[in-house]
Amino acid sequence: MQRRTFLTSLATAAFFSTILTFPAQGKPNMNTANTHAQNPTLPVSMVKEWDKIFPKSDKVTHQKVSFKNRYGITLVGDLYIPKNIRGKLPAIAVSGPFGAVKEQSSGIYAQDLAERGFITLAFDGSYTGESGGEPRNVASPDINTEDFSAAVDYLSNHDLVNQNAVGILGICGWGGFALNAAIADTRVKAVAVSTMYDMTRVMAKGYNDSVDAQGRLKMKQDLNTARTAAFRNNHADLGDPALHLTPQEQITAETPQFVREYSGFYKTKRGFHPRSINSNSAWTTTNALSFVNMPILQYAAEMTSPALVVHGGNAHSRYFGEDAFKALGSKNKELVIIPGATHVDLYDKQSGKIPFDKFAAFYKANLK
């Protein structure tokens, strides 16, 4: 195996396979903590204070909500409802990026779209943030796809929502899960993704598909060695946060540009949040196992829902969005490339490059 391929394999495994749960900002709710200890599927917390990385809008109302997915795990979300609502409204479930929490990018998207007339739900995926599930800091292509459908369940049963006009929006790695959910869930009337990743592809093949079969074998050997050890700790062993995402003070001239961008968001005041895996923790040591062996988007050609794929022109991940777009069978689909935008430029409003008008127009046209 070539040296570059081997190093890429190691970097990919470290970035996506290495992560503890973080305390909620402020004092923990001991009643919630005790209840979760008795039933690990219940919420880890439901912090009432506004602890997000973006300011609260005076154009919408906000409330914390919870709901269960099909596996019995309780998910926690932020529900945003436009003020002066009249009749039932279309709704959008939002999640992502991979390793983030609803207090970061997904909340920014959800609140902005709520200001434009949609009921929106930004939620934490299973085993992360305030949502339930143990061990902490685990991801799953199956369960995280299900999380989107669980959010559709919740919205479809809400008194203020038009259940025939529910869409979903996924950011970064949750873009792949959103597309995967829309392929299977016919209740999803429109799906949009922003700066998306196919997490199963990048974990199995590395960036730009640079990891070969020999590299994957070495990665799987390392992961399964870690699994034997993790068993002794109920599979809760976490990786090294510094290997998961390089801290600002450790960035050097050799640090890849995409890692610089991620660190510049999650590890600084711009995007840091104490419950975010990418801000101060890491995934479990065996997190990548199911991703390496379980590709999503296998039936992309059978998607019928309208789809919008948005990506940055200068994003290292652009190829994920373009390839997914080509594979989608939707007759109503559109690819939008934002000139000059990097992957992280579409995480928040700092660069001013998130095309909120485009997202809103897409949902208004397809959620009726």
Automatic annotation (TrEMBL):
GO molecular function, one term: hydrolase activity
InterPro entries cross-referenced by the UniProt entry: AB_hydrolase_fold, Polyketide_trans_af380, Xaa-Pro-like_dom
Leader sequence residues: 1-26
Domain Xaa-Pro dipeptidyl-peptidase-like: 72-340
Keywords: Signal
Gene3D superfamilies: 1.10.10.800, alpha/beta hydrolase
Protein name: Xaa-Pro dipeptidyl-peptidase-like domain-containing protein
Organism: Neisseria iguanae
